[in-house]
Structure formats: C-alpha cells, structure tokens
C-alpha cells in the first residue's frame, strides 16, 4: 500500500514556526519528486513547494519564499516543510504529494497524496 502521512501541524501565534513532516511508505521514495500543497477554507488549493528526486533541487512559491524551506531525507523516506515567520494567511490544511517525474515547478502530475495536517496561525 502506498501511503503518505503528514505530521507536525498545530496552532501557533503569528511569527512562530512549525516543521511539517511527511513519511512515505509503499513506494521507492528516491524516484519521486515530493511537494507540499495547502488549502485554506473557501480558497483553491495552492502549490507551495517541491523538491526533486536525486538532485534535491527545490522550488517554493513566491508567497512563502524566504520563510518556508522544503527538504528531504531519502534514507528515512521523509520530506519536510520548515515554516518560519508564520502569518495568519498561512492557515490551511497542508498536504504532502508525490510524483515520479522531474518537472519541479509544475503542480501537475501528483498522483499520490497524504491526508493533510492542519496549520492554524493566530494573530
């Protein structure tokens, strides 16, 4: 069974930090580009960040650039999203996703998804 399981969400004050983790199982982790998406209430799903397979190149969307960092640990089948200087607008359900491709900047092609973890940032 292929599974992505997010953890690390919670409630924080504006300006605080959280680190989200995504544990992958049932797949050959090293052949997948990994990504984080988020969806806030009444908003469309947003492509947040991605990290490529093998070369570990990264992409982050402009709205979080300088605040969020994506990383991965292939030895442990983990991908992380370090979120600093959080803002209320970052409040959303954050989803981990995977695709066996190298088009890092594209939000398309993600066929494996986690269940999501809630991040709430209060003012």
Strand-helix topology:
Blueprint: E1 3-7, E2 10-13, E3 18-25, E4 33-39, E5 46-51, E6 58-60, E7 68-73, E8 78-83, E9 92-99, E10 112-113, E11 117-122
Parallel strand pairs: 2-11
Antiparallel strand pairs: 1-3, 3-8, 4-5, 4-9, 5-6, 7-8, 9-10, 9-11
Strand portion: over 45%
Number of helices: 0
Query: From the alpha-carbon coordinates, what is the Rg to the nearest angstrom?
Result: 13 Å
Instruction: Point out poorly predicted stretches.
Output: none
Describe this structure in words.
It is built from no helices and eleven strands. It is globular, with a radius of gyration of 13 Å. The N and C termini lie far apart (40 Å). The model has no long low-confidence stretch (mean pLDDT 97). A hairpin with a 6-residue loop joins strand 5 (46-51) and strand 6 (58-60). Strands 2, 4, 5, 6, 9, 10 and 11 form a seven-stranded mixed β-sheet that branches. A four-stranded antiparallel β-sheet has the order 1-3-8-7, with no helix packed on it. With 123 residues, the chain is an all-beta fold. The protein has strands spanning 3-7, 10-13, 18-25, 33-39, 46-51, 58-60, 68-73, 78-83, 92-99, 112-113, 117-122.
Question: Could you write a compact summary of the structure shown?
Answer:
The protein is mainly β.
Attribute tags:
globular, 123 residues, 4-stranded antiparallel beta sheet, mainly beta
């Amino acid at each position: 069974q292929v599974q992505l399981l997010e953890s690390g969400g919670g409630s924080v004050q504006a300006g605080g930090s959280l680190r989200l983790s995504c544990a992958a199982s049932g797949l050959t982790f090293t052949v997948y580009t990994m990504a984080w998406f988020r969806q806030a209430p009444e908003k469309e799903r947003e492509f947040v960040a991605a990290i490529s397979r093998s070369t570990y190149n990264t992409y982050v969307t402009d709205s979080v650039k300088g605040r969020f960092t994506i990383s991965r640990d292939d030895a442990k089948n983990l991908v992380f999203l370090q979120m600093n200087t959080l803002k209320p607008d970052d409040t959303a359900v954050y989803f981990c996703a995977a695709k066996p491709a190298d088009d890092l900047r594209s939000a398309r092609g993600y066929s494996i998804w986690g269940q999501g973890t809630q991040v709430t940032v209060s003012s």
